[in-house]
């Protein structure tokens, strides 16, 4: 009887709580696994950002032996600069036209590749051709189009044969055409991103929706506006925000085609900041410009995260 009571009493006793230090060590285990990544992020991202913000508040950093705290003077100088406003306007035009064109061309090609009216062999050939620009690096794209748009290039030869232009035209050196030319190159290089994403979205739309709409007498245009676009809206919004972020930070394509010229007609925020730092060696103003670009990028990233949360 006593042995039974002893067993029951032992079972009734609550489990002992582990010591505090053991619980603390257990809670720190996940952070130990994340520590290499966190250290890399701090060294490669947090530290440089903090240094650039500090440089933007100083005068004559790096190049001078002694620098002084000037507060917001560098930001005021940048924001009131005519060159900065020109770069901002060019960047806005470049981004707006590129994103809209990427969306329309990508949607059109995606619907073509998803159409049952096109044979499987034709879709395979077109899919290979349409995705080729996405496979090329920025350097190859810049060199390719510089050769095509050269006064002795293929574009001038074709347009001269058609009577559109006369003589040899330097497209990337013409102040009136240079911005449109680099925008066209960026559109050609970036539309496959939209095309592939929208094509995946189209293939995920249930066919029952189209069949039910067709039974109700809805035409092709009505089905597009009532079914296709609403189903693709989350994908289009996410891709558009990503494209805005990427296009606004485009540097290599501009630098290797026009270098921001001629006459600052293709100057972007990225090339403007680069020239301040490595052409004029004004690292304080360049840091202020970089911080402004960082703030704009963070705003765009905030809206992208919000769109993703709404989509989920």
TrEMBL record:
Cited Gene3D superfamilies: MetI-like
InterPro entries named among the record's database cross-references: ABC_transporter_permease, MetI-like, MetI-like_sf
Protein keywords: Cell membrane, Membrane, Transmembrane, Transmembrane helix, Transport
GO BP of this protein: transmembrane transport
UniProt-listed SUPFAM superfamilies: MetI-like
Membrane topology of this protein: Multi-pass membrane protein
Entry GO CC: plasma membrane
Limits of the ABC transmembrane type-1 domain: 88-304
Pfam family, one: BPD_transp_1
Keyword flag Transmembrane: yes
Main subcellular location of this protein, as a coarse class: membrane
Highest taxon, organism lineage: Bacteria
Residue ranges of the TM segments: 31-57, 92-113, 125-145, 177-202, 232-256, 283-305
Localization annotation: Cell membrane
Family from the record: Belongs to the binding-protein-dependent transport system permease family.
Protein name in the entry: Carbohydrate ABC transporter membrane protein 1, CUT1 family
Organism the protein comes from: Actinomyces ruminicola
UniProt lineage: Bacteria, Bacillati, Actinomycetota, Actinomycetes, Actinomycetales
